[in-house]
Amino acid sequence: MPTIAPPPLRPHDRVAIVCPARQASHAELAAAVTTLESWGLRVTLGASTNVAHHQFGGSDEVRRQDLQHQLDNPSIRAIFCARGGYGTTRIIDGLDFARFAESPKWVAGFSDITTLNCHLLGRGYQSIHGVMPLLFHQEAGQESLESLRRALFGEALAYEVPAHPLNRPGTAVGELVGGNLSILQTLTGTASDVSTDGRVLFLEDIDEYLYAIDRMLVHLDRTGKLAGLAGLVVGHFTNPQDNTVPFGLTPGEIINHYAAKYSFPVAHGFPVGHEPQNMALVVGQQMRLTVDETGARLVGV
């Protein structure tokens, strides 16, 4: 059954910024408010912004109540998660999506917000994996910000990347699923777990040890997450760590070691993840991945 895409945003729509994970002050979100207002949107800063409980944007209950309020409020047409870090899995099981289902809206974020992306996809709703308000000020990321605007306002997304020596050619059509590798591995077996069968999986991560990347790929493979894939898109694996005795493989080589067991196309070097070039992807959207000697293309169908 096809996933449900929330209605595109329109000028004068009201949107909310919340902190389901780490804290973010109003000063840190000022650039995002200015940008969203320049898109013609009206911005509400949720109760979980500008407050702190240790590293979190308020206590678990503050963050849960704020996100629940924005999910339930029919006047809010999109929810932007201010930043990632850690914390969304602590509150996800306390959320009720009944009113959201009556009036679906866009939820946008990445990294720790992969939890929400997957939770919504498992319930049949599309969401956006893209740059978050804390990072809107990055001049180097303006192309990513524009891709987020296009996704929110219902404009077509299409990406093309150069050829990569680790690519495997082929064509795949399927709904997008994925995000942060460590979060995806953590969600396995939970209420936020999501099927990858027949879908195009995209992966990214930051600051992970090479052996840990391998361990997580082993886990995804052993739980069947790779066997039924239509295709695989490999994004940024930023600042990988290593031990005194080297692991001996790059993140891309580790991924290919497990992908080699199957025949789906693989596209490396895709601009998604923890770097300024973090292009928006609509999780749950039907896409065509084409990989050949000229490079890779990801286009909506």
Which descriptors apply to this entry?
alpha/beta; 13 strands; Rossmann fold; LD-carboxypeptidase; Peptidase_S66C; Glucose Oxidase, domain 1; six-stranded mixed beta sheet; 301 residues; serine-type peptidase activity; hydrolase; seven-stranded mixed beta sheet; carboxypeptidase
At a glance:
Helices cover 28% and strands 24% of the residues. By secondary structure, the chain is α/β, with parallel strands linked by helices.
**Based on the structure given, which CATH architecture of the largest domain is correct?**
3-Layer(bba) Sandwich
* Order of H and E elements: EHEHEHHEHEHEEHEHEHEEEE
Number of strands: 13
At CATH level 3, the topology of the largest domain is Glucose Oxidase, domain 1
The largest β sheet comes out as: 7 strands, mixed
- For the record, what is the CATH homologous superfamily label of the largest domain? LD-carboxypeptidase A C-terminal domain-like
What would the principal axes of the Cα set say about the shape?
A: globular
Report the uncertain regions.
none
Percent of residues in beta strands: 15-25%
How much helix, percentage-wise, in residues? 25-40%
Instruction: Quote the distance from N terminus to C terminus.
Output: 16 Å
Rg of Cα set: 18 Å
Class by alpha and beta content: alpha/beta
When the domains are counted, the total is 2
